Amino acid sequence: MELKNKVSKEDFKRYMNDCSKLSWIFHSIDNFKKAIDFKKSHKISTKLKVELENSDEYNTAEGFEPLTLYERLLTASDLTKDELIQQKALLANIDNANGLELSPTPAETIIDGNAVGDAAREYFIADLYEYNREHKTQYQYFDFLQYGFAESVDLTRDILKDDTHRVLFEPSFEYGNSKLKIRCDILINKGNRHVEIIEVKGSTKEKKDHFYDLFYQWYLLKKLGYIIDSVKLCLINKNYYRGLGEIDPGLVLSLEEEFIDFEKEIKIPFLDNDFEVPNNDFKSDIEYSKLFVVSNTYNEQKIKPDYLAIFENIADKNDIDYLFEKIAAIYNDENFLLNEKCGKFKMDFKNETIDYKKAYCRHIFKYRNLDEFNVLNLPQMHTKVGEILWTRDFFYLKDIQDPFDKKYTDSQNKPIFSATNARLINLTNQYLKNNCQTSPDMIVDMNRIDDIVDLLKDYYQYPVYMYDFETSKWAVPNFNKSKSYMQIPFQYSIHTILDDKYDFKNSQATMKHANFIANSQNDPRPEFIQKFIKDSFEFGPGIYVAYNKSFEKMVLRQLIQLFPEYRKPLHYIWQNTIDLRDFFAKAQNNWLIYHPEFKGKSSIKITQPVLDGSLSYKDLRINKGDKASQVFRQFADDFFTQEQWENIFKKDMLAYCDRDTLAMVVVLQKVVELIKEIDPMLIETIKKGES
């Protein structure tokens, strides 16, 4: 087999699991720069979102756009201190033998990756010692991490010639004039060229790209003549809690609506007494044998086949050498990104075959001005976008006069646009014809005004507590009573509305405000619970409002589960929390209110400034949730001192979270104003409590 170019593990994974064009772009610095040139010269446009490896129970991120992020890191001259650190990490990642692993590269991502790797080493070293005790052997381990790739290749080859070292960390291999390279996470040396491959992932869930990761390693070692006895994937155990051990998910508390007597179960035991939540500062040792789950089966399939068996079956039925030759060949084609279809090999897991297929690419496509209103702004269009981008003469919404016209059907003669999207298209075109001016009866769905009124009724049941949490997470649990990637709340803000005289422009005089932020590196949850309960009932029981409530309710549910002594007040808040986002995006019947400038998105960072741009985050040094999370994480991990926290970061952190809940007030106030303009009597009817 003679490959025209190197094919790294990450190249292979991106090609097989994502998109051949994505694989082409991140194959090398030269290809990356070529893609940037294509963008700047208006030959291509890109729409990339990369899913993160981190596995949260609740994923608040939508992924990230690597081309934009990396372009700045590699070309900008005004990088911040944090960005310079990210640039260094990116350059090191590009030179990695395994290829460029796409990552947003914040500090916590790097730290988590290192922490999982270190924990896995501890686990497999302990496992080796246990093996030696059981079998009365004296096997050793060897860590190649300190060596460069070329030196590591030679050392790996030499060490595998005898069986003195059983467990190898980061052993290196190359094949075909270094066109294929790999640094394995862990290799078990069983002697006589028999080995076991173990890949460690900082994830709690198995993903399809893990399959290709292991397949690449198996293939390369097979080509080198090693006999692979087993292939395993090591994941983080999502049911392991530090200090508590493994908890059966069937025993995890499920919450349901229940009657809670405020006077007897909340006011008397909690509010009338100066209750305190004991700290949770003691940290138990991590039980590595419970932190990790090691499996040799591919659990993405119903049958759950053995990795080794399915790899061997695929190799028997397909020409894998030819597969790699074809992949390697694409990287020489400078115009590959200009092809309308992504020609690529696709795995048929059921039949264990690899077929070559072509599909219209929805990631990289011929140039469009994405700042104009276009079909990419429409929700739930992803499966249809590829064909539209390449084969249709419409892209901009202004060119779609009648979305129900029969010409707007797909290759299967099905309507391209749903009824909801048709409404958004017509609304956007009306907006453009009106010189980008709107009226209340234009952006409010007048056919569902009753639904909006029903939602608004809750906001007139005072007090109304608008609340927002900030959280951090760790791959390896940092506190007792926590698991991997659990969202640990360390901060909240509450704006309380007591009557209908509230005004976000005069918030101090027309509303009440409370906030909290952890002030030590210990577990913030005990003090968080104590303060949050008191502040959430300061003006009596009420209605509790979050924006995208599933996140805050998930955090509350976990607090109830792990701190059951405070179940009643937290449960009361949990079951009385409503979602401000329901005015825009719901599970069904979306967009009761839609402004064309939302462009299909319902994040408060979009809806609030569109409805009223007078409140901005631009004056804040910390102006995004992920930045706030990262700052607290660095504080908790002892990256800066208590004095630095107090004098540099704390004020900015408080300002950001406070701004979030004030933005919620802005949204509510603007919704009420819209309805008042349509029919003032509707609001008066709600105030009187009439149906």
TrEMBL record:
Residues 465-603 form the DUF2779 domain. InterPro entries: DUF2779. Pfam families: DUF2779. This is DUF2779 domain-containing protein. It comes from Spiroplasma culicicola AES-1.
